[in-house]
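The instructor's notes for this session suggest beginning with a concrete chain rather than abstract definitions. Hand out the sequence below and ask the class to guess, before any prediction is shown, which regions might be ordered.
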Amino acid sequence: TGVFWDTVIVCALTGIVLVSSIMKDPAGMAGLTGGSLSSAAFANIPVIGPIVLTVGLITFAWSTILGWSYYGERCWVYLCGQKSIMPFRIAWTIMVFVGSVVSLDLIWSIADILNMFMAFPNLIALLGLSGVIAAETKKYLFNNNMEAWSDDEIPVVDK
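After discussion, reveal the predicted structure:
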């Protein structure tokens, strides 16, 4: 639900408000970008505009922090074992604080670099598993087995 809420609801609402505000007052929106553009657009909605922006931003940030924390923790446990949870949580908490006090450009640069580091192993895995993906797709999609169910357990590596 977090992805749906963030992507479909919050982003769509923000986009609609931006487009309608720019159409209403193009001169007032000229030169604005990012957060200042969104803030100015929601300020055009009397009384509730800033409130909707604030609540949307808080729920978006909160759900994003919780979601990525969980994803990261599960991956870290898979790679390093159960005993590594507390060091991960401490490092995560420190980085959330650091992220709230450093410049936004630095945060985006770090996020881009870390996403690049995640892309490489994923691309290698996609290439390595392409034969398996093709075989499973053929098995289920092209042989009318879409309703088939597997009771095989997902293997878990305990380190």
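Then share the key points. The chain has seven helices and no strands. The CA atoms of residues 140 and 146 lie 5 Å apart.
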